[in-house]
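Assess this one:
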Amino acid sequence: MPQALQSIKDQAYKNIEVLVADGGSEDNTLLIAQSYDFVRIVSLKDNGQTDGINKAYSFVTGDIVAWQNSDDVYELDCFSQVIDAFANHKVDIVYGDYRLIDHKGQTIKICKSHNWQPAKFKTGRFVPLQPTVFWHKRVSDSIFPLNEHLYYCMDVDLFAKAHNKGYQFLYLQKELGSFRIHTQGKTSQYKDILKVLQEHAKTLRANYNLNSVERIALFKNLTRLFLIKLYLNIKNG
């Protein structure tokens, strides 16, 4: 969490509100959050990450919204670039490129995203990485609360529902965030990766009426993604 909050503090754009959802943690989460004067703590008992996001969201007042995992960070000047993108384009959701980093914050790989392509998204070939995604509050107002039965892929569900409602996505060809790979991560182990991809497939099938060709493509694409994630975790674990 310190790196995540520090990456927010270091942003040039300062007109922000930061809500830290704490469901009764017994570690030093509250002490860390309290050390940053721009943080507002939402300390309510929750039933997991998704419920925690929902509870914190009820306190959001800003127009541009995002959520960030405590292990991940924003790139320098990310907020200014996102604000400019919304100001210069009639879009509802902005996302960008990202870095994969190790537990020390060292870059493993720079990952390029691409323009929003529904066919690829529906078949698991592509998904905007959540630490780089920002949206107008009207988007989440029309979709929230997030599905609390989803443990991993609430972001995929959010994007699918936003797409089905006709909201417009913009790919910003800049590095906006970093996603950390380490052995303590919620998606770091073999069984966890498998559960993520199973939930990913289930989430897409729940939001789209996929035909047989699309279902086969979904299976192939998520199998390929499973092998890539497994290789990266073994290599950097």
